[in-house]
């Protein structure tokens, strides 16, 4: 899943090496934290959060067959 | 991106010489004319060569293809990808076993993938290209559903003599509804609200 998030985000930004995903898991949910270079923040959020929403839609679709709830935080 | 500047007696000749240097064809480059050149008197006095800047276009459709392929792979879905492209539009057709996962409820995952691919394809280029991502003919089937819905709701609007609101849809789905009812004299249509909650309203005349 971490690899999926990185695959989605890297081509969108100008500093792909600064894309970082960390993972925090407990019994019923997995929370992913995405951080990018400070100049790329707009590129992963977008106008009215449109890009962030699209990223989450794809990530949540991929997580739909796991039985844990998945969250994606974008910093 | 590779580019060269070339000169010649005419613009055509300058472009030709640039293409030879880049070892490519006219379809795969973007041409900027810097100077049209001047013939001069008797081709002797005051003549100026034509100058052009020719840039090799990266094959952006390949980038989109690779992007979609990678995402599908990381989602654990095997897909076949078919690419159809022209000047303004690149269409990716996905097919495979677990394709439903890539479409999602009312196509929301497919729309998200289409939006992201559009961003990747149009990153750092001047000439905007429309990107369409389709899976197992989903968009065609969806269009048929939308047209039927438009017909049904237009009749309802006429019957009850009140405006009928549709649910929020992305722009190209709204366009299908507007187009479907364009020639239907008894109603008019418009869109209301702010993206992403913009929706079609059917109004009886």
TrEMBL record, chain A:
Any one cellular-component term (Gene Ontology): cytoplasm
Keyword field contains Hydrolase: no
Keywords: Cell shape, Cell wall biogenesis/degradation, Chaperone, Cytoplasm, RNA-binding
UniProt-annotated location(s): Cytoplasm
Gene3D superfamilies in the record: 3.30.300.20
Keyword Cell membrane: no
Sequence intervals crossing the membrane: none
Entry's Gene Ontology molecular function annotations: RNA binding
Domain of life: Bacteria
Pfam families in UniProt: KH_KhpA-B
GO biological process: cell wall organization; peptidoglycan biosynthetic process; regulation of cell shape
Database matches in HAMAP family: KhpA (MF_00088)
Known role: A probable RNA chaperone. Forms a complex with KhpB which binds to cellular RNA and controls its expression. Plays a role in peptidoglycan (PG) homeostasis and cell length regulation.
Family: Belongs to the KhpA RNA-binding protein family.
Subunit comment: Forms a complex with KhpB.
Protein name (database record): RNA-binding protein KhpA
Organism: Salinibacillus xinjiangensis
Organism ancestry: Bacteria, Bacillati, Bacillota, Bacilli, Bacillales
From TrEMBL, chain B:
Start and end residues of each R3H domain: 140-205
GO molecular function annotations of the record: RNA binding
A Pfam family of this chain: Jag_N
SUPFAM superfamilies: R3H domain
UniProt superkingdom: Bacteria
A GO term from the CC aspect: cytoplasm
Annotated stretches, region: Jag_N domain: 5-55
CDD domains according to UniProt: KH-II_Jag, R3H_jag
Predominant localisation class: cytoplasm
Subcellular location: Cytoplasm
Keyword terms, alphabetized: Cell shape, Cell wall biogenesis/degradation, Chaperone, Cytoplasm, RNA-binding
Single biological process term from Gene Ontology: peptidoglycan biosynthetic process
Subunit structure: Forms a complex with KhpA.
Function: A probable RNA chaperone. Forms a complex with KhpA which binds to cellular RNA and controls its expression. Plays a role in peptidoglycan (PG) homeostasis and cell length regulation.
Domain notes: Has an N-terminal Jag-N domain and 2 RNA-binding domains (KH and R3H).
Annotated family: Belongs to the KhpB RNA-binding protein family.
HAMAP family, per the entry: KhpB
Name this polypeptide is given: RNA-binding protein KhpB
């Amino acid at each position: 899943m971490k690899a999926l998030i990185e695959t989605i985000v890297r081509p969108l930004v100008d500093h792909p090496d600064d894309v970082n995903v960390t993972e925090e898991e407990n019994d019923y949910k997995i929370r992913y934290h995405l951080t990018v270079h400070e100049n790329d923040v707009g590129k992963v959020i977008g106008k009215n959060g449109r890009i962030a929403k699209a990223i989450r839609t794809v990530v949540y679709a991929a997580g739909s067959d796991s039985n844990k709830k998945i969250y994606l935080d974008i910093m | 991106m590779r580019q060269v500047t070339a000169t010649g007696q005419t613009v055509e000749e300058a472009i030709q010489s640039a293409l030879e240097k880049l070892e490519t064809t006219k379809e795969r480059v973007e041409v900027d004319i810097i100077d049209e050149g001047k013939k001069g008197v008797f081709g002797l006095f005051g003549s100026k060569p034509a100058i052009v800047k020719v840039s090799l276009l990266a094959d952006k459709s390949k980038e989109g293809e690779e992007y979609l392929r990678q995402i599908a792979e990381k989602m654990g879905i095997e897909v076949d990808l078919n690419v159809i492209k022209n000047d303004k539009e690149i269409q990716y057709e996905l097919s495979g076993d677990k394709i439903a996962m890539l479409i999602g409820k009312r196509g929301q995952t497919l729309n998200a993938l289409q939006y992201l691919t559009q961003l990747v394809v149009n990153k750092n280029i001047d000439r905007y290209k429309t990107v369409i991502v389709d899976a197992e003919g989903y968009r065609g089937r969806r269009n048929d559903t939308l047209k039927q819905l438009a017909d049904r709701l237009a009749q309802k609007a006429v019957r009850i003599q009140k405006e009928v609101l549709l649910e929020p849809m992305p722009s190209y789905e709204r366009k299908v509804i507007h187009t479907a009812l364009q020639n239907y004299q008894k109603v008019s249509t418009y869109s209301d609200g702010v993206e992403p909650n913009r929706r079609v309203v059917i109004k009886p005349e």
